[in-house]
Design brief:
Layout (H helix, E strand, L loop, with lengths): L1 E7 L6 H9 L8 E7 L6 H5 L5 E4 L4 H11 L5 E4 L5 E2 L3 H7 L6 E5 L2 E3 L4 H20 L10 E4 H7 L9 H9 L4 E4 L5 E3 L2 H6 L1 H13 L10
Parallel strand pairs: 1-2, 1-4, 2-3, 6-9, 7-10
Antiparallel strand pairs: 4-8, 5-10, 6-8
């Protein structure tokens, strides 16, 4: 049994495709719950989510990391996973997430990303992302645990303090603390389709620069409100 937490903010154009994928899994629907945590959307995100999710509510904590934490605290199951409202998980994603905890010492599992829109630019982006993910996993120098594709053993996550409230890097920072709780597992078959539109809108290298700048200055920037 597993709970999936999906933060969302003004995602009426994309959240339905995400929730349809999450509702049609190889695992029976009654063996997992879907929790949508809304960041105060001004569109129909919540109305759409209510047609698919077991629980929809407005977040109380700040930023995306806080939305994930709010969802974890209201989840019902011993395993929790998180993905994005604009991502599309593979049909066996939940099954693979559950299977990744067959070793009782595993406290965090994560997988690779594939581009939703398969153009040359997005393929290069995904090659870079997956290269970073696999290098970190095999070298154990770091764990590139993207928020769109991560699962946890809930008791260990709570003990570790859940996500730190940051604008960027929270998905890497949590792995630093979780590896002290037990094993971190790379699950190559736990695949998620990733939407690279924000990289196109802002520019890939500008996004990477902003990401590292925020991480280096401690994770908070007044430039971001969600």
């Amino acid at each position: 049994m597993i709970s999936v937490v999906i933060p969302a903010f003004n995602e009426e154009k994309r959240i339905e495709r995400s929730l349809i994928a999450l509702s049609n899994q190889t695992v029976p629907r009654d063996q997992y719950e879907l929790i949508v945590v809304d960041g105060g959307s001004h569109d129909k995100t919540c109305q759409i989510a209510q047609d698919y999710a077991d629980l929809v509510f407005v977040q109380e904590s700040e930023r995306v990391a806080g939305a994930r934490n709010d969802g974890f605290l209201r989840s019902r199951h011993g395993l929790v996973a998180t993905t994005d409202a604009d991502s599309i998980v593979a049909s066996n994603w939940i099954e693979q997430a559950i299977d990744s905890f067959s070793d009782p010492d595993v406290v965090l599992s994560f997988g690779p990303v594939t581009p939703i829109e398969r153009n040359d630019v997005n393929r290069r982006y995904s090659l870079l992302f997956n290269g970073l993910i696999k290098f970190g996993a095999h070298s154990r120098l770091y764990y590139y645990t993207l928020g769109c594709n991560t699962a946890f053993r809930k008791d260990a996550l709570l003990k570790a303090g859940m996500y730190r409230i940051m604008d960027a890097g929270d998905d890497l920072e949590i792995a630093v603390r979780m590896r002290k709780m037990g094993k971190v597992q790379f699950a190559p078959e736990m695949k998620v389709g990733f939407d690279f539109r924000r990289y196109h809108e802002f520019g890939f290298w500008n996004t990477i620069y902003e990401w590292y700048y925020i991480v280096l200055q401690g994770g908070i920037s007044d430039k971001y409100s969600y």
